[in-house]
Amino acid sequence: MPVAASRGLKAWIWPRPPESTIWFAEFVVLGRLFFNVGSSTAGGSRMSADSAAVTRIVEAFAECWNRHDMNAFAELFAPDAEFVNVVGLWWKGRAEIKAAHEFTHQTLFKNSRLTLVELSTRFPTPQIAIARCRWRLVGHVTPQGIPLPERQGVLLNVLRQQDGKWFIIDSQNTDIIEGVASRPQ
Amino acid sequence: MPVAASRGLKAWIWPRPPESTIWFAEFVVLGRLFFNVGSSTAGGSRMSADSAAVTRIVEAFAECWNRHDMNAFAELFAPDAEFVNVVGLWWKGRAEIKAAHEFTHQTLFKNSRLTLVELSTRFPTPQIAIARCRWRLVGHVTPQGIPLPERQGVLLNVLRQQDGKWFIIDSQNTDIIEGVASRPQ
Fold this sequence. Notes:
The structure is a homodimer.
Chain A: H1 3-13, H2 17-30, E1 35-37, H3 45-66, H4 70-75, E2 77-84, E3 90-92, H5 94-104, E4 113-125, E5 128-138, E6 151-162, E7 165-175
Parallel strand pairs in A: 1-4, 2-7
Antiparallel strand pairs in A: 2-3, 4-5, 5-6, 6-7
């Protein structure tokens, strides 16, 4: 696909690509974390506390990843949580999520570092949060141990509050592939 | 990555690949639609009616796609819905979701056909549904109009009930890439 055609296509598909891309890149380069927490159905101090709690859980996702502590990572998830990774592997339940990440953090992601940016959280009901962020990953390798270039993606976490505590009940992850509107051809 | 290594890796990552793959393939081949609707927090006839309503919305996603009716497609979404597509494009609001799909359904997906299989729906609260399914897509083309092979993926829809009606409030889509645990190297 020619670059010009690709850019024209992308401008149609994603009305704000240049600004978003630059803005995203700025935060990635500066290594800063930006959290934009909003609510579509509720407000007030209770919601602020919940927003802070949800933000802490999502931050912990990256913190556990970066110290490769899959015990702590798994505790962020509800027992019946589901997780779909960037190649469509669909894990059902905390045990599967933990086992899969334990394996990749002993291999592909052993020395990887995940940085989350541009977190946006919505509360469709007071007990449910939809938290989406972009991310960048560095330090990952092939199954043969060969270093790979930086990757970026979009991570969705759905969280539920239970007994005053927030847990991830669903995650789906998608790689960002620049310059195309659909899967690369 | 050698096939044997890939299979070994995948067996670790996804504890049920052979059965799931065969089972999935069977439904794809037969063109049948299988809906597995469960609930983690509630039951009874009210929930059955909600399960049926959510199933209809997810079925309508594919029906609108297949007749390339983006007006009807957009009406499935709440005004403030978000959508992340398979290459990480992040659309915010019904208008962006509609515009992006109008464009692709005039080009890449003009004659494409989407089939949803293995729908699984959970209700973390009575007003929220998490509906995930696998899908296959045929009949899509490159930006230059060249036919592309079948693709498969995993689609997550989060729905909210408002005034007795269910709307998609969030979608994230991920391509299935066989034989790898993470992005292909």
